[in-house]
Write a structure and sequence with these properties.
134 residues; 8 strands; 1 helix; alpha+beta; 4-stranded antiparallel sheet
């Protein structure tokens, strides 16, 4: 009877050790994510037919008119930032403008627990910047 209890205790201990040894810690890769795009018009003119395109992946966002001093924004499912360039086109005084390739400026500190927004600022008629913002 005692030998049988010892056998079961030994067997149980072996299973527990086997379980603990076979469990591995999965390291989660910390990545910069984003879930919104904001287009700010800080220029002195109204911008028409604004289009942001990530050509490599075939994604785009468009806004009909962004009046000076206003913005246009959209949200979407959280995406992992892949470093792709974007091309931005818009109409200004009935002439098409195009900038690209443009890369988003990385934040100094990445907050891995929440997605960022990408903010594209039209600071003047020919100066466009892109940055992450939390």
């Amino acid at each position: 009877m005692i030998a049988q209890k010892k056998y079961w205790c030994t067997l149980l201990t072996c299973f527990m050790v086997l379980f603990l040894v076979s469990c591995n810690t999965v390291l989660t890769k910390k990545e910069l994510t984003f879930n919104a795009l904001v287009l700010e018009n800080n220029s002195g003119a109204d911008l028409e037919n604004v289009r942001i395109e990530a050509r490599k992946i075939g994604a785009f966002v468009a806004c009909g008119v962004i009046f000076r001093g206003t913005s246009c924004s959209t949200t979407f499912q959280t995406k992992i930032y892949q470093g792709n360039s974007v091309y931005i086109s818009w109409m200004l005084n009935e002439q098409e403008q195009l900038i690209g390739p443009l890369y988003v400026k990385l934040p100094q500190t990445i907050q891995f627990d929440s997605p960022a927004r990408i903010v594209i600022s039209f600071d003047s008629e020919n100066n466009v910047t892109a940055r992450f913002m939390y």
